[in-house]
Amino acid sequence: MTTDRLLLRLPDDDDLAPFAAMNADPEVMRYIGDGSVQPPDSAAAGIARAHREWHERGYGLLAVVVRETGRTAGWVTLTVPAFLPEVLPAVEIGWRLGRQHWGNGYATEAAGRLLGFGFAECGLDRIVSIRHVDNQRSRRVMDKLGLRFAFETVVPAHGRPVAVHEITHAGRTDGGPGARTPR
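The structure assignment produced for this chain is given below.
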């Protein structure tokens, strides 16, 4: 999949170092899971899981590559948010970018493309996005994508507060990035 500035593709070994660097950056991981950095081998496990999910479900995690430079900026995903059982059944859209790529609109651009894919190609009717309640950067991306606040809750595994946002296929009337039909 492509956007004007990005290539979204299945992750491969070239993504191991950029993914591991993101997972080891305390500022990137601040609002993710329990807020801890992840060990280097978590990148390889994530790439293997991405390939399994695409094979089993027809959607999953994609590396986000800046077309102009060829550098991996991070990833975007459609996945089942098993960590928050109360929202199930659901598919979540999420993203993680290396800090050097923040502020360029890449998260909105990549997630908008994948959101459109989820509705148009996967036949999803509802997509959620879940953020730590203090993560205002992700909230702004969710707002730009047309996701609307649904409720707050806590993640059972670690008790951190999260906000759940959602969008339905029928609710995509704003013409935003997720409303576009994939090329």
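Interim note for the steering committee: The longest strand covers residues 72-79. The chain has one domain: 6-179.
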